């Protein structure tokens, strides 16, 4: 018999075993504790979940196990007491007092402390959706991790010393990031939207913690006073030539799945997160475009697309009335692609530990690895820095407008419900204006 206790991140804190216990029992205990902690459910429930096709790939993640016996501890007071009192006391006993000299947790009154207090508050834990919590987590960690000239992280700065000038410098550091491409050339990328969202998260955290700690948090919120530049910029639409350059670069880099994903965005107007993966609940359930939707037995010349943002269902035909393919480049790729998991878009290289292909999205809902890979390939393809993965979806809709499709025809393809929303994606171009003038001239000469 063996028992393991892990912290919220799945790191082992305590292992207890009977004399004579086999090593496999200890490993199983550790993996059960890890699984229960990471997915926040008993491992018996997790074992049932991975029987579903949409969640089956989760069992292939490192350290995860689908065996009964692991349970999460959800009583907040007990968990906090274990983390702040019992486990430190155990560490002190094991290290003969050496661990007492190591600071535990963020320094009182620091920006890290502010973030920690914000996450403990009911305004965060009870009021926000899972996706919003993750957004705040990522943005605040991004701000906290900025390195200062003296070698410290921004998170270590005392909030009493954070003023508007300090925030302005932080904003500039967050906004511009230098990235080195595969060609060795460094390029500066403008992350205006990310910087603005990080400032908004910090402003929110300051306001919430100020209410519960009025003696420690200054009245004046420096994140509220700063001037942010408008990020009301439309996503630049990619051209068809840029799409083809990106597809070729993906294939050359050994990432054909990303090339296929870009073609799907262009032709079928599916959103990135609905295609490569989106975690939809605290259990880690992943929603993405499954193989079961492609050429189903009862309608082999179609694909079922669900636009989850507005719950619009589009049955996209894959062949014309004469059975000729409507999307030959895309359907040829899909028909020739190996089915490496439940979803059409999976990672191109198998996981080193399990040898199994995993979804691009992680169980925590993170797509950072996917987006970094996309950016590297775009640099390799020499595409403009303004082009993003979403640009291919915008480009496909804009191409439809250039081809003089009616609003109704465009909505039938893209899944948009109203012309007002569609107008955001279909960029007004010179081709559209020429077609408009031709139509007006033809009308006059009738």
Structural class: mainly alpha
The biggest beta sheet is recorded as: 2 strands, antiparallel
Widest beta sheet: strand line-up: 1-2
Quick one: how many beta strands?
Answer: 8
Mean pLDDT: 82
Short description:
By secondary structure, this protein is mainly alpha-helical. The protein contains 18 helices and eight strands. A hairpin with a 4-residue loop joins strand 7 and strand 8 (312-317).
Overview of the structural elements:
α4 crosses α8 (192-212), α6 crosses α8 (192-212) and α7 packs antiparallel against α8 (192-212). 29% of the residues are buried. This protein is 46% helix and 8% strand. The longest helix has 21 residues, at 192-212. A two-stranded antiparallel ribbon has the order 1-2. It has 446 residues and is mainly alpha-helical. It has helices at residues 23-39, 43-49, 76-94, 111-120, 122-125, 130-144, 164-175, 192-212, 222-225, 240-252, 256-268, 272-276, 328-336, 368-380, 390-402, 407-414, 419-425, 430-444; strands spanning 2-6, 12-17, 176-180, 186-190, 278-279, 286-287, 302-307, 312-317. The chain folds into 3 domains: 2-101, Beta-Lactamase; 111-225, DNA polymerase, domain 1, CATH 1.10.150; 240-277 and 291-341 and 367-442, Orthogonal Bundle (hpI Integrase, Chain A).
């Amino acid at each position: 018999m063996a028992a393991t206790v892990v912290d919220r991140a799945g790191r082992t804190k305590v292992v207890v075993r009977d004399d004579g216990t086999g090593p496999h029992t200890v490993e199983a205990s550790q993996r059960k504790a890890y699984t229960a902690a990471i997915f926040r459910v008993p491992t018996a429930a997790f074992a049932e979940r991975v029987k579903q096709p949409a969640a089956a790939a989760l069992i292939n993640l490192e350290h995860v196990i689908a065996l009964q016996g692991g349970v999460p501890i959800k009583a907040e007071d007990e968990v906090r007491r274990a983390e702040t009192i019992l486990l430190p006391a155990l560490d002190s006993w094991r290290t003969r007092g050496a661990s007492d000299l190591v600071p535990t947790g963020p320094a009182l009154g620091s920006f890290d402390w502010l973030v920690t207090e914000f996450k403990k508050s009911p305004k965060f834990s009870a009021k926000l959706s899972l996706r919003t919590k993750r957004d705040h987590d990522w943005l605040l960690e991004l701000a906290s991790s900025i390195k200062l000239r003296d070698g410290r992280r921004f998170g270590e700065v005392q909030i009493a010393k954070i003023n508007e000038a300090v925030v302005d410098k932080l904003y500039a550091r967050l906004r511009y990031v230098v990235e080195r491409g595969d060609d060795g050339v460094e390029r500066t990328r403008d992350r205006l939207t990310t910087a603005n969202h990080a400032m908004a998260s910090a402003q929110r955290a300051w306001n919430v913690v100020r209410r519960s700690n009025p003696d420690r948090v200054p009245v004046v919120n420096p994140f509220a006073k700063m001037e942010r530049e408008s990020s009301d910029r439309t996503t630049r639409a990619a051209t068809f030539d840029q799409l083809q350059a990106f597809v070729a670069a993906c294939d050359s880099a050994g990432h054909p799945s990303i090339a296929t994903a870009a073609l799907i965005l262009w032709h079928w107007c599916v959103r990135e997160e609905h295609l490569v993966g989106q975690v939809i609940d605290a259990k880690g359930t992943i929603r993405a475009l499954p193989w079961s939707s492609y050429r189903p037995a009862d309608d082999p010349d179609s694909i079922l697309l669900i636009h989850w943002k507005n719950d619009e269902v589009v049955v996209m035909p894959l062949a014309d009335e004469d059975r000729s393919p409507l999307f030959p480049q895309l359907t040829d790729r899909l028909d020739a692609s190996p089915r490496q998991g439940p979803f059409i878009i999976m990672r191109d290289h198998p996981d080193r530990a399990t040898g199994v292909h995993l979804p691009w999205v992680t169980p925590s809902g993170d797509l950072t690895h996917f987006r970094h890979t996309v950016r590297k390939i775009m640099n390799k393809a020499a595409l403009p820095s303004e082009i993003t993965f979403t640009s291919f979806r915008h480009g496909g809709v804009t191409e439809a407008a250039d081809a003089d499709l009616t609003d109704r025809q465009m909505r039938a393809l893209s899944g948009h419900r109203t012309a007002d929303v569609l107008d955001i994606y279909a960029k007004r171009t010179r081709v559209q204006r020429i077609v408009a003038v031709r139509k007006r001239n033809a009308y006059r000469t009738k």
